[in-house]
Amino acid sequence: MIDDLPDPLMRVTGLTKLYGRYVGCRDVSFALWPGEVLCVVGESGSGKTTLLNCLSGQLPLTAGKVEYDTRIDGVVDLATLSEAARRLLRRTDWGVVHQNPRDGLRMAVSAGANVGERLMAVGERHYGRIRGEALDWLGRVEIDGGRIDDLPATFSGGMQQRLQIARNLVTRPRLVFMDEPTGGLDVSVQARLLDLMRTLVTELSLSAVIVTHDLAVARLLAHRLMVMYRGEVVETGLTDQVLDDPHHAYTQLLVASILQP
Amino acid sequence: MNEREMMIEVADLRKTFRLHQQQGVAIPALRGIGLTVAQGECLALRGPSGSGKSTLLRSIYANYKPDSGRIAVRHGERWVDMVSASPQRVLEVRKRTLGYVSQFLRAIPRVSALDVVAEPLRQLGSGPEAARARARTLLARLNIPERLWQLAPATFSGGEQQRVNIARGFIVEHPILLLDEPTASLDEANAQVVIGLIAEALGRGTAIVGIFHDAEVRAAAATRTLDLQAA
After folding, report:
1. Which residues are paired to B176 by β-bridges?
2. Identity of the residue in A5, A195, A245 whose CB atom sits nearest the CB atom of B109
3. Do B111 and A195 make contact, defined as CB atoms within 8 angstroms?
4. How confident is the model over B145-203, as pLDDT tens digits?
5. How far is CA A131 from each of CA A95, A107, A119, A150, rounded to the nearest angstrom?
6. Which chain A residues have a beta carbon less than 8 Å from that of B89?
7. What percent of chain B has pLDDT over 70?
8. Per-residue pLDDT tens over the stretch A64-105
């Protein structure tokens, strides 16, 4: 009944990204396991987003490597893949959810087409099935099916963010990258999105790397936390352990700075 | 049960809190603690505040990270050291072996009391209806009015939240249970329900470590007591 732990889905070794002389992030190493949600926390400028963009192959690394266990070819070093192969990975086996839904959605096409487009990228051509699947996913992210032909611009910020999530999850990715997915949303809208994300991540056994500066979001969603400060990882561990018994001076400051409602 | 197996073995556990934001002041909390708990035993931790009761309990759950020492927990057929185990292993142990009832419920926005209680069973793979049925039984037993079951517990009273938390903690029937003041904000009748749940768990062979501020509850629940000294 108690199995040994599986192999990691992603392994990061010595990842460094420099912008000229300025350090984006330095010497980051970790592994991500299937079904695991890892939150990267830290203040603005700490290198969280740089790290995320390096992981998802959107920024070239200065040093280090990112290995990913692909469905077909097993473990590959992402740097050895062609840009086309990396783009295919991002459109099929991965999801990328941007803080601003406008960066992740195609604003000139309907909600249904936004979801359907990713399905077409994995070879689905049957219009009825694509529409059916899009409708199903709108329902799962609590968007009324009657809005399927509307443009995302007519949606509220919270709805746009949920649509972006549906667009990413429709191809059943194994790994999702999210950058401040609840940033800029009203608190009540945030709660709905968080509950939805929590449910979907569990139901689909998704792995996720989520960048956030909100420790409450991290506590709710993450199995594990990585605390970044000035481009380096200063503390990492089980979410509740890092938040309830922080060891590094910066983590202690971060935890002590939260306002209790 | 003929042979009572050992479930927890803590040896030479030490922990000091270092507060970097307050000139690095060091607060010693655990100084070489050791204990053992077997199946069917309830060990009560007793001592003045500041003696490290909560720190010890949280360390066993791996919520706190000790500086040194060993916390061996029997997880199925193997022993896991909660001090050095990987996060993945700790989560596995918590899911199947180690239950924890804290004093305060961490409510999740929009999730009903019924689903808060059912969740640990769902994580073990139970179907939603089977898990909810078990959750209803526990909520009813802990006298949570049925009209509240579909509501998110954020607005419940302190006592109601604590009872939801207790139901959540007992639903899985973990082989080891850690209880941090489980009756702190409960009235006499509900405290009796909790004592009943503890007695049944012990009957099943559960190993329990608890902090009970109420001497009567402690006397009724515990089979042994460990006295901790103020640091």
Report:
1. B98, B207
2. A195
3. yes
4. 999 999 999 889 999 999 999 999 999 999 999 999 999 989 999 999 999 999 999 99
5. 20, 18, 10, 14
6. 5
7. 99
8. 999 999 988 899 999 999 999 998 898 889 999 999 999 999
- In whole angstroms, give the CA distance from residue A204 to residue B138: 29
The answer to whether the CB of B137 falls within 8 A of the CB of B87 is no
**3-state class of A72 per DSSP?**
coil
ipTM of the predicted assembly exceeds 0.90: yes
Tell me: pLDDT of B14 over 70: yes
For chain B, what is the largest distance between any 2 Cα atoms, rounded to a whole number of angstroms? Answer: 54
A240/B92 Cβ within 8 A: no
Q: Which of B13, B18, B20, B64 to mutate to test the interface with A (most CBs of A within 10 A)?
A: B20
A223/B91 Cβ within 8 A:
yes
Choose, out of A2, A219, A253, the residue to mutate when testing the contact with B (most B CBs < 10 Å). Answer: A2
Q: What is d(CA A194, CA B30) in angstroms, rounded to the nearest whole number? A: 37
- Parallel/antiparallel/unpaired status of strands A10-19 and B207-211: unpaired
DSSP B222: -
Helical packing angle, A127-140 and A157-169, nearest 10°: 130
User: What's the pLDDT score for residue A186?
Assistant: 80
Which residues in A lie closer than 8 A to residue B58 (C-beta atoms)? Answer: 244-245
Which one, of A77, A33, A188, A182, lies nearest residue B154 by Cα? Answer: A188
> Which residues in chain A land under pLDDT 70?
1-4, 260-261
DSSP for residue A258: P
How many residue pairs bridge chain A and chain B with CB atoms within 8 Å of each other?
A: 62
* Domain parsing of chain B, residue ranges: 107-172
Q: Please give the pLDDT value at position A2.
A: 45
Q: Do A244 and B63 touch (CB under 8 A)?
A: yes
Please, is A130 exposed, middle or buried when counting C-beta atoms within 10 Å of its C-beta (0-12, 13-18, 19+)? buried
pTM reported for the whole predicted model:
0.93
The whole-angstrom distance between A234's CA and the closest CA on chain B is: 14
User: Which residues touch A210 (CB under 8 Å, ≥6 apart)?
Assistant: A37, A38, A39, A40, A177, A178, A181, A217, A218, A221, A222
